[in-house]
Structure formats: C-alpha cells, structure tokens
Amino acid sequence: MDRKKFILSLLIIISFLRIASVFTISNNDLIFDEASHMNIARGLVEGLDFGYIPGEGYSDAFRPPLYPLVLSLFFSLLGSSELVARSVSSIFGILAVIAIYFLGKKLYNENIGLYSSLILSTIPTYWFYSSKALVEGMLIFLVILFLYAFYSSLENKKYLVPAGILLGLVFLTKYTGVVFGVFFVLFTVMWKREFLRNKYFYLFFLLAFLVVLPWILFNLRVYQTPFGSGSFLLTQNLGKNIPTNFSLYYILAIGIETCLYLPFMLAGLYLMFKKRDRNLIPFLLLLLLFIIPLSFFEVKRSRYITPLLPIFTLSASCSFEYLRNVKFRINLHKLLIPLMIIIVIGNGVLTLYGFENYPKSERFKPVPEAGKYLQENCMDKKIYSNVYNYVWWYTHKESYGMDEIDYEEGNVCVLYDFFYDVRYLSKLDSNLKLVFSKGKVRIYQN
C-alpha cells in the first residue's frame, strides 16, 4: 500500500474511533462548561432567552453564543442529551481534520496536507476536548477555514469577504478569536500595506462587525454594554493584581497540546526558519499573540491555546515531509510509516488512559452518578446547590444557593461540590444526612 492510501485508511479508522469515543471515554464525566452549553441550548429550544436559567437569571449568558445556538438546532431535531451534544462536537472535530488537509495542501503540497490531517486527528488533547460538549471542535474547524481564507486573500483579495465572516464566527465561538483580528491588522501593517488601499480590507472588518452585531445588541439589552459578557470574563480572569498572574504555563502547555508530536513540531519550525519559509513569521506572530496575553490571565487551561493546533500541526508536517525526502545511510522514508503507526498508537493510549484521568476528573467524574441520584430521589424536594447548572441539567428544577439553606426545613436535598469551596462542609455534616459521596461531590438530605 502506498503512503497516500495508508494515511487515508488511517484517517477513516480514526474517524470511526472518534465517533465511538463519544460512547466511551467521553461518557465518563460531565465538565462544568458542558452543562452550561447544554443548558443554554435546551433553554433556547424551550423558548427561554439565551443563557437564562429560572432562579439564576442570566447566569450563563456570558458564554459566546455560536456553539449553544448550533447545539439548539440539533436538540430541536434529536432531543436534548449529552450524547447529541458530544456527537455534534465530534462531527466538527472530523470536519477540522478534513479542512486542515486543504490548508496544508494550499500552503505546501498534498503530502503535508495528508500529514496534517493525520497529526491533528491523533493529538490527544484535541481528540478529548472535541469529543466533549465544548467549543474546541467547532473553534478549530472555523480557525482553519479562516486561515485558508486569509492565505487565499494574499493571492486574491476577494477572499477577504469570507475571511471577515469567519473572523466574526470565530469570535462568537470563543472570545480569544479577537486575536485573529489583531493578527490580521499587524500582518497587514508589517507586510501587506497595499491592503490598506483596497476596499476589501475595510469590507473584511465590516462583515466581521455585522456577524457580531446581534451579539452586541444582546449584550446591550442584558448587560447595558456592547461586550458585557466578554468584559465579565476578562475581569474574572485578570484579577486584582495582573503582574502576579504571569507565568510560563503556556510554554509548558504547548508540550501538553502537541504531545508526542512536540519534537517534530520544533524540528518543523527550525526547518521553516532554515528554509526562510514565508509562513514562519505569521505562525510565530499568532503564537505570541495568544501566549503573551493568556499568560497574564488568572485562570490557565491548556485548552485555551487549542486555536494554535493548526500551526503546530502544519509545522510538524513539515518535518515529516523532510524525513520523507532526506537520504542518509538509512533511507528514512522507509521508516516513516512505522514511525507514524507508533505515534498514532502512542497518542491513542494517552487519549484513553491519560485524559480519562486528567487532573480535574476527581471533580467531574462523579457528576453523572450524582445527577442520576437527583433524578431518582430529589425531584419532589427543594434543592440547594453551589453548582446550579448541574441541578438544572439533570432535574430541570430551580435550585437555591447555599447561603439560603434553612437546616430546620424539611424535605431538602443539597448537591454540594467542594472542589473550590469547603465552607459549608461542617454545617452540612452536622445538620443533614450524607447520602452520596464521591470525589468532590456530595449529596445531603434530611
């Protein structure tokens, strides 16, 4: 079997495994953000305003709207469930693998397109997060489309039309998408100043603005500011003392994101520098624009830099292409397919056994069991909780805050996540009966 057929066969197998993962590794917990996205989507299907939860008000309205809006379409057709939501994410994950083939082919050649598809499809962090009801699968798909339109605009400025629309969609998927707008401006000022004299440059920003406009109007209605939801997240992340937030976490996170491909990514960047590859400077510019601002955020997660995965993937593909062509005493191209098999299997093992036990699983793994307990035992009780989104997802009942608990009240059920907050543990233990305890989640009754 030749290399092309081999890689295509691998991609088909991996795509089936990705879909299967929705029923397996993705089904072992429920992340806090997943519950929020699904609650918004189900609420939209039921006629509630975006991000509105009875009893909590617009508590989830700060989340970017595109992913929950897409989920709501599928919920209206197939019903509201974790399986449907995660399947949607997995589909976008597969679409991104297809899209990066065309991006790699455009920037370099078909071989790099194929390598890029294989690499992206087997990066454990990408596989894991794009199999959850999270924005990462959709986000990376849109980022790849944006990069394709952006690079196409360097040859034909008319591509700035779809690029502007895609920039708006990226921003509506995750607020860090604004980085791509900054990137475009800096790239234009430094290397493409002729864009400034072209109508399509201004049409690019006009279209991006029109795509975001409905969200601006929503924010004005709910928060009385154009980007109230984004401002909320920004202030929450920056904290009071911004300089003390800084760390080199995201330099280490690159290793987490690229995993076993890290040596090939670094080698690819070196080869791009050595060959004076025209894509190196834009790649490094995007890298810095993401890592530097995020390094000052108080809350740091490796998945926040997943929009950089297309860059990591393409640079690693360059080193694979070099290995295919270089000739030493041993013909390295004969070892390329065995090397691919080893890396794919290694990443598969990491996905199954590494991310199934990822650091916060002690908080999230017990959630489905706790939710089932609520459904079976607390539907006729008044529920108090510090994780309202879980209560609303599993019971569709309004919950009350921990400060409102009256320990003399009867017929009460309390769902408590003490991962961050242990203030109420002693009172709960001394006044109520513990009926469920797993990880950092407890349920009490009286």
Task: Please describe what this structure looks like.
The chain is mainly alpha-helical and 446 residues long. Helix content is 63%, strand content 5%. It contains 21 helices and five strands. The protein has helices at residues 3-21, 32-45, 66-78, 82-107, 110-121, 124-129, 136-153, 160-173, 178-191, 199-222, 228-238, 242-245, 249-258, 262-274, 280-294, 309-325, 333-354, 361-364, 367-377, 388-395, 425-431, and strands spanning 382-385, 399-400, 412-417, 433-438, 441-445. A five-stranded mixed sheet has the order 2-1-3-5-4, with helices on both faces. Helix 1 (3-21) runs parallel beside helix 5, helix 5 (110-121) crosses helix 16 and helix 19 (367-377) crosses helix 20 (388-395). The model has no long low-confidence stretch (mean pLDDT 87).
